[in-house]
Amino acid sequence: MKVVKFGGSSLATGAQLEKVFKIVSSDPERTVVVVSAPGKRNAEDTKVTDLLINCAKQYLLFGEAPELVESIVSRYADIADELGLSNDVIDLIRSDLCQLLEGDQQDPSRYIDSIKASGEDHHAKLVAAYFRHQGADAYYVSPKDAGLFVTSEPGNAQVQPESYQNLSKLKKQQGIIIFPGFFGFNHHGDMITFSRSGSDITGSILANALKADLYENFTDVDAVYSVNPSIVSNPKEIRELTYREMRELSYAGFSVFHDEALIPAYRANIPVQIKNTNNPDAEGTTVVPKRDSTNGPVVGIASDSGFCSIYISKYLMNREIGFGRRVLQILEDDRLTYEHIPSGIDDITIILRQDQMDETIENRIMKRIKDELDADEVTVEHHIALVMVVGQAMRHNVGTTARATKALSDAQVNIEMINQGSSEVSIMFGVKEAQEKQAVHALYNAFFEKALI
Ligand code: ASP
User: Fold this and answer.
1) Same domain, yes or no, for 389 and 437?
2) Counted domains in the chain
3) What does each C-alpha distance from 173 to 76, 343, 419 come to in angstroms?
4) Closest by CA position to 385, among listed 353, 411, 361, 422
5) Could you tell me if 20 and 108 lie in one domain?
6) How much is the pTM?
7) What keyword terms does UniProt attach to this protein (predicted)?
8) Pairing with 75, which of 43, 82, 103, 452 sits 20 to 30 Å away (CA)?
9) Is residue 127 in a domain?
């Protein structure tokens, strides 16, 4: 059997739902369908999830948000009208939403989270109603009834291990299951969401629990591209890549598939296929445990901005016991996560996501590092972009780094830092944000436009 997940743009209008129904009904193995909330209908549109977040915030401030409630409900009503569905499902969505909005507001982030989660919950009910209207034996399944339990951190839920056993029981059910993505329940019965775009995670959890043969992830592009198409036009499509490669690419800006979503599928060895709802005959991209590396050492170039780096230097740092631990303890005390730590004998650079740090936190950390660790120099650099060259075959290939650095130097890109993980799946270059695009172009040209060795 296959678990099939559809993203928000695949479910934004009645016409899109018709495509979804065709795709699901064309293959009897597609028995579990995971849905997102309605996404953008065009570039200027707003996702229902974002409308819901605003609505919850307004409710917290003013105790009402009539216009937002109407615009949310009308998004579903427009779809139902387009498909000729009765009003029953819209009445249900309206009353569910109003009931949630009147819910307990004592913990605002949990309150907002429950409203935010409802976008997929409502849509799963609507999609199930439409599938039944088309004569299919389809029904909505609530994550609560199915036992999808998660931790209690709003917007960053992690699946609880017992969920897999609970969800495996869905295997016995007949017909097509329509399951809302993006959230589960904690043990107190609160709806808690995964991080944004987390419906991919739900699909992967279900694929693992049901030991699916394939997890199909339908979105709005024909494939995963080897580079961001908004930076390089008409880039090469990737046919096949490994979990590790996909993880590295989605970490550094490839938003086509959520980076956390790979883990459950990976653990159960289930291939993940990225496909296009608007062009289902296109081959798509398959993520597999292992692949033949016949197409060169590099599979993709990714980049992401919004990083900063803390540079610490101290003479004889390499001989000082516990230096690294004490630096990291200072970060931990401020609940900061780090991304990379390239280091030398007398210095270390810690790369972090900028949005975790405001000026106060930054000053506090700098002072502590200087005072408590007696560092010779501590500096912070902002506006760093990370550019990743990804490909598992580079470990058996001589000269990949040389080619990359030559391409960057020919393009006059100044490399601020370079890091190659011990797994040799990727090489990371830190560059100034202003040079990010230049760097990506140069690397793409070097590995994809010129003849491969
Ligand atoms: N609707 C949610 C979001 O916009 C989750 C998802 O689409 O996967 O983040």
Assistant:
1) yes
2) 2
3) 27, 54, 49
4) 353
5) yes
6) 0.88
7) Amino-acid biosynthesis, ATP-binding, Diaminopimelate biosynthesis, Kinase, Lysine biosynthesis, Nucleotide-binding, Transferase
8) 103
9) yes
Residues of the chain predicted below pLDDT 50: 451-453
Q: Which residues contact 251 (CB under 8 A, 6 or more apart)?
A: 259, 302, 304, 388
Could you tell me the distance, in angstroms and rounded to a whole number, from the CA of residue 50 to the centre of ligand 1? Answer: 9
Best of 5, 120, 191, 201 to mutate for ligand 1, by most ligand atoms within 8 A of CB? 120
Q: Distance, CA 7 to ligand 1 centroid (Å)?
A: 8
Q: Supply the pLDDT for residue 451.
A: 47
Read off the pLDDT of residues 368-396 as tens digits, 9 standing for 90 and up. 999 999 999 999 999 999 999 999 888 77
What separation in Å is there between the alpha carbon of 199 and the centre of ligand 1? 6
Q: Residue written as tokens 């629990």?
A: 209
Burial 220-235 (b: 16+ CB within 10 A, else e): bbbbbbbbbeebbeeb
Ligand 1 neighbourhood includes 392 CB (under 6 angstroms): no
Q: What is the pLDDT of residue 297?
A: 84
**Structure confidence at residue 450 (pLDDT):** 67
**Which tokens sit at 110?**
């949990």
Same domain? For 318 and 255 the reply is: no
For ligand 1, is residue 264 a contact (CB within 6 Å)? Answer: no
At 250 the pLDDT is 84
Residue 294: inside a domain: no
Whole domain around residue 329: which residue ranges?
300-452
Give pLDDT, residue 55: 97
Does residue 89 sit within a domain?
Answer: yes
Find residue 380's DSSP bridge partners. 310
- Does 203 contact ligand 1 (Cβ within 6 A)? no
CATH code of the domain containing 447: 3.30.2130.10
User: What type of residue sits at position 107?
Assistant: D
- Together in a domain, 263 and 339: no
Same domain for 250 and 186: yes
Q: Which of 115, 182, 195, 277 to mutate to test the pocket of ligand 1 (most atoms within 8 A of CB)?
A: 182
pLDDT in tens, 397-428: 788 889 999 999 999 999 998 988 766 789 99
